[in-house]
Queue: 3 jobs
Job 1
Amino acid sequence: MTALHILVLALILVGFALWVRRRRQQSLQVIETVVFENIGSRVLDDRRDITVFLPPNYHQRESERFDVLYLNDGQEWESLGLRETLAKLTTTGRIRPIIVVAVPTGANRMQEYGTA
């Protein structure tokens, strides 16, 4: 393999990596994230931040109805890659656009969920 072949191959690989990175960033932009801070619960006697993920172009689709997924232990949304997964599944048409409400666990998780 000549130096020219190696250079061309390297340029192709770098170009492909940059293309993949850009596509990933574009897909993440379609999922809007809204955080409602310090929401109180009289039942739990606690306050917490609630994260809501909205489907692409949500504000331009006011008359459209969306299914809602409530995510218990919602503080794990980042480590689960939720935003990336939603973006990929939505933009590829594998799922219909949905709203996800991520409800984090409080300090007393066992009291909230019980010991079932």
Job 2
Amino acid sequence: MEFWNEAIIEKSWKVLQELKKKIKFILIGGWAIWLLTKTLKSKDIDIIVDFKELTKLKEKFQIKKNQRLKKYELVMDEVDIDIYVPYYSDLGVPLSKIKTITIQGFRIPEPQYLLVMKQHTYRQREGPKKEKDLIDIFALTTVTDLKKYLQLTKELNKPQYVNDLIAIIRSFKDYQFLSHSKKIQAHKKINH
């Protein structure tokens, strides 16, 4: 079961594949979470680039700076791409400190970083995207080493994120968006 329209999702995935051929980036947001959890795909693309890669993008595409949200924005083939850069963007974790792994040729943050970043975003949203964030957060708990997560929240001085996560896990009800194995993994973590 998908949260967004399948045609939009497929177009987004194709744009992401093309983008990977053009620049170096760290994939974050819904697509990174999907690569880790295989739960919900995304309709938009979120990436972190350094200033060299941002310059490459500016040379090829019309990019808008969103000062309020501290990011850059690009639309490729009707797909929204949010571009975050170190020392400017605020994703709840200093971008220069993010540790990455590679899945299917994409560099993505280690799960504990993605979880903190998604919690940071969740706290600022309303509407359908907030609901999707909730599902993503829950799915991430099934693949995150909670000891590493606790250490990261301590390093970032975000103890409230731990309490928020416990509340999210206890109140979660959107199980229809999770595979059967994810439901089992989640229940095991909840009951320990």
Job 3
Amino acid sequence: MSSNLEKTLSLHFREFTPVLACSDISKYVSIDLSIHSSFIDSIDVSDPLKMDLFINNFLLKNSSKVAYGGYLEKRNLYDRSDYFNTDGKRNIHLGIDLWSPSSTDVITPLDGKIHSFANKINFGDYGPTIILEHNLDDITFYTLYGHLSVRSLLDLEIGKHVDKGDVIAQLGTHVENGSYAPHLHFQIIENISSFHGDYPGVCDEKNRDFYKNNCPDPNLILCLE
């Protein structure tokens, strides 16, 4: 059964601004990085430079500018970092990744305010991260933007209003974004609890249902499918 948040977002479908500077949806291509992917075993996912090369070649092959996907994917990408294996094996992805070059502008899809921000410097973590708070039809929820550039956090203020279409950040390089090929981790969060500048973006199998309910499909905002 759909939650009130999912129903509300569905009612406003197609009203949201794309979260990356590329607004031409025809230039977006889906990519499967799950353990079931036909090519995942041929990629050295532990090396961000090799991963970046693979993504760039994938985009060229598909005449695209942004590769996207990953909601509820089970991935081996996180095996490289102990950060994801401290309490069970966390390998189920809770957001959608949008793979695009570093310095690409990140745009807020609807009005909101800055809830919190942080630089999560653990190996394989988000790196610079911004969380926005939104209220739509009297329903409060949050959107998370991870793997940003360090300079994206400069001059931010908690509570500052942001308008739909505002540039709020840029994508970071692998040196600053948690050691990944450049991309945006975009996630919807219904109840953020006491988290600030952070929220789990990957979960283990036993907690999948909880996080699926609290973090609905980002395509409700991205409108890519």
